[in-house]
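User: Can you fold this complex?
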Amino acid sequence: MRCQEFREMMDSYLGDELLVETNHDVLRHLENCPACRNELAAQRGLLAQMRLAVKNAPEMQLNQAFAIKLRNNLRETALRPSVWEKLKAVVLAAQDF
Amino acid sequence: MFGIGAREVREKEWAAFEAEALPLMADVFRVANYLARDRETAEDLTQETFAQALKSFHRYTPDTNCRAWLVTILYHLNSKRRHKLGQLKLVEDTEEQIAETVAFVPPIPEELKDEEILQALEKLPKAFRDVVVLTDVEEFSYKEVAEFMQVPIGTVMSRLHRGRKLLRQQLTEYARNFGLAADG
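Assistant: Here's the predicted assembly.
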């Protein structure tokens, strides 16, 4: 594998999206090519920093009050008896009467 | 009164939903925020996504990829929202052309600040930024991203490749403007 070929498939390599055989070719190339190893390390470093920067950005944080309110609303909806259950209760109550 | 069995079933379903889906609320909100570019809309989308997910939870297979399942719902709801607003459009040719012109991949500058990376990401055309965020930040697979966006997997790969190239170009410009050394 040449450096140019590696650079073209570096994205797929980083995403773990290469076929096993191609992955082996990449690993063999990296073993013998310090320039591509450096390029890969730099790209990995950039992506890791970007991942943390986005996840830690203040505007990306979920508002806790919103989260609690949404959870409570969902819980109420989930545990609310269905119309059929309510109807059944009415029928049963009428039978008892 | 209500059947005890039915109440128990509801509580069991809620417990499963609470354990699998709710811990992912921050992740769903983050993706919604990137899609909507506005906190209020992102919160609305998050709320709608979880309401829809709760309704459809019987279709979800436990212990599979709940995050991808939720983001699929989010994308669907966002498409509907944009369709209503008349914002749905194909990637503009100009955006594709911008990306096409980046033939050279510049080396990554050293000592980048988080704000510089975030600003560079902001400057990417939306179609590329969305793919970069979903794959590089949120770590979804190409296949998952293709399913969210309803595009072929090859489109995801090419947008990611071009998006990363554009990002590096932006970062090189910052480095040049602020006199940071580029390695290589």
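DSSP finds nine helices and no strands in chain B. Chain B touches chain A through 49 residues (CB under 8 Å).
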